Amino acid sequence: MTKPTNVAIIGATGVVGRETLSILEERNFPVGQLRLLASERSAGEKIEFNGEDHTVDILDEQAFQNVEVAFFCAGGGISKQFAPIAAKAGAVCIDKSSFFRMDEDVPLVVPEVNPQDIAGYTQKGIIASPNCSTIPLMQVVKPLHDVVGVNHVVAATYQAVSGAGKSGIEELEKQVRDLFNMRELDTSVFQQRIAFNALPMIPATDGMEENGNTNEENKMISESRKILGLPGLKLSITCVRIPVFNGHSEAVHLGLNESISVDRVRELLSAAPGVVVIDNPTEGGYPTPADAAGEDMTLVGRIRLDTGFDNGIALWFSSDNLRTGAALNAVRIAELLCSEHLHK
Question: For FRET with 73, which of 21, 79, 95, 242 sits at 20 to 30 Å CA-CA?
């Protein structure tokens, strides 16, 4: 893919927007014109890309002229309002918010799992990128499902505060400082203290739904079924926020249709795109969020038989939620979109 592509980043000054810009540069994505868009509050800010300063412009309805690919990194409300406008102007929108994920006419894509679904962008001019915890889960589940079939997924997530954005990072940092200095704590972002704690409520406010799951848990369930094309797949998910700045982890238990050895699981996952196996726990060989931070791969370990299922496998993985779980997935979608569709 060498033909330059005109790109817009909506929410360019946010955590995911900046990470998207960084990954575009790292991967030498052939950006032609670059348009950085944000709210009026951030307009005029300078952001460097490929050695040049670019000025952030105000996001409005006229901002998408000549844009070919628009990365939406600014939340569901912005995507709802502006993605259809961008698509009408001729851009293909890659949306990181949850707003369009379950729309039947919008493909929900993890490039290592269901790249063929990208072709569905022609319906509305929009491609959705999944939740930051769904993406690595799919990278791990799909290679096993293709060989022995997966019928049940039980997972508990351990999610970093960067998943709540810049304000989540700042609140953890401030709470740690305040605790050590015996000052009163501010809990404006999370419902309870996040420092040295674990909170089984994501999102932090208005997160509980009628079925007893949080919004984040229901997202992972519905998104996994759509990506795998398995509407009847059983999933039980618990999402927990932990006091780590970056890097999500998950403890996963899989019920399979057929028995499989641990060695065969290691073999399959070692060959899977986007996955690295680190599985020598007696020697300290297991993934952690610190290992995953800054990496483009999902790190998998603690692979073992799970006797809770007739044919069960348990494992653990860590991934960088800002890269693998957000910006990198979006950029990989854009690379395939351009090479296989827009500039074929």
Answer: 242
Q: Which residues contact 116 (CB under 8 A, 6 or more apart)?
A: none
CATH of domain 5-130+326-342: 3.40.50.720
Q: Please report the pLDDT score of residue 204 as a whole number.
A: 83
How many helices (H) and strands (E) the chain has is answered by 8, 13
Residue ranges of the chain that CATH labels 3.40.50.720: 5-130+326-342
Which CATH number applies to 134-321?
3.30.360.10
**Could you give the residue numbers annotated as active site?**
132, 248
Beta-carbon contacts of 4 under 8 Å, excluding residues fewer than 6 positions away, are: 30, 31, 32
Output the pTM of the full model: 0.95
Give, for 269, the enclosing helix (H) or strand (E). Answer: helix 262-270
Residue of 77, 72, 44, 69 lying closest to 58 (CA atoms): 44
The reported pLDDT for the residue numbered 330 is 97
* Helix, coil or strand: residue 57: strand
Report the SS3 class of residue 16. Answer: helix
Residue 22's H or E segment, with its range, is helix 15-26
